[in-house]
Amino acid sequence: MSQKLAKRFMIAFGLGLVLAMIFDHSALGFALGFAVIFGGGLVAE
After folding, report:
1. Could you write out the DSSP letters of every residue in the chain?
2. Is pTM, for the whole model, over 0.90?
3. What's the structural domain count of the chain?
4. 8-31: per-residue pLDDT in tens?
5. The domain containing residue 32 runs over which residues?
């Protein structure tokens, strides 16, 4: 895994956890936040 990809993964993971806490500890909130940030980052590249 490249350095850039690993960094993006960590950022998406962290923001996904924050979203999960905001949305009542739901796994769906985490998955959605993670997918949007990680997927969006890949598309933007």
Report:
1. --HHHHHHHHHHHHHHHHHHHHTTT-HHHHHHHHHHHHHHHHHH-
2. no
3. 1
4. 888 888 777 777 777 666 677 677
5. 3-44
